[in-house]
Fold this sequence. Notes:
CATH superfamily of the largest domain: P-loop containing nucleotide triphosphate hydrolases
CATH topology of the largest domain: Rossmann fold
Structural class: alpha/beta
Number of strands: 10
Low-confidence stretches: 1-16
Strand content: 15-25%
Distance between the termini: 35 Å
Oligomer: single chain
Helix content: 25-40%
Strand order of the largest sheet: 6-7-8-3-9-10
Mean pLDDT: 89
Radius of gyration: 18 Å
Largest sheet: 6 strands, mixed
Amino acid sequence: MNEPRTVPAEKETPPGDMLTVEGLSVHYGGVRAVRSIDFTVAPGQAVGIIGANGAGKTSTLKALMGLVPRSGRIRFGDTDMTAVRARDVVRHGIGYVPEGRHVFPGLTVERNLLLGAYTRPWRSGRTRRALGEAYELFPVLGEMRGRLAGALSGGQQQMLAVGRALMAEPRLLLLDEPSMGLSPKLVEDILAVLRRLREEGLSLLLVEQNAKLTFEATSDCLVMENGEVVMTGTSAELRDDVRVRRIYLGL
Length: 251
């Protein structure tokens, strides 16, 4: 394995729970999509969220990023994130890979990556180092740095979305359905990247329909149903739980 990515001193992981969520709820008009959930993600921990479509998984991630109406309390390290505006969340060390990738198709691969470093000057040494690390993690992006993002395959766009989020040097990375629409080979490639990021100490919060990927990429999982967390446990425990296999995995 190549040398791990460096973490600047000002980005060192603080002690205690990195992310603490208390009573988080999400409302869309009169619809309550997430119902007063609690969970934590400790420094270096990888947590998965599984559940059927409409369970509230994506809404949970969007709430953490300040993208939807929410209530409850969110703490990240020593910072109360509850009132932090969406555009400022990344500055506090939280990265986000949205469902559907949402790359900028009319911009080059490299320009897409540089947009992920919008919190600091593009020509800074840190930005150039982060760019090199993204190309080292995803060599195909380095080969296609001058190509328009819209010309990439679905798998390459997913790599670009992950690389763009990493450009901000987050301490916690939120990922929403990173395997969606990918071939089994590309799913394995994404799993390898998540394992590497986890080994390097990056905290992960992963929403996935691919249960196999979730259980292999994370240490602990939450099971959501109708906007509520109905089960928690280690990934190994939930993978082998009869109820989870029958109700949520269809096995």
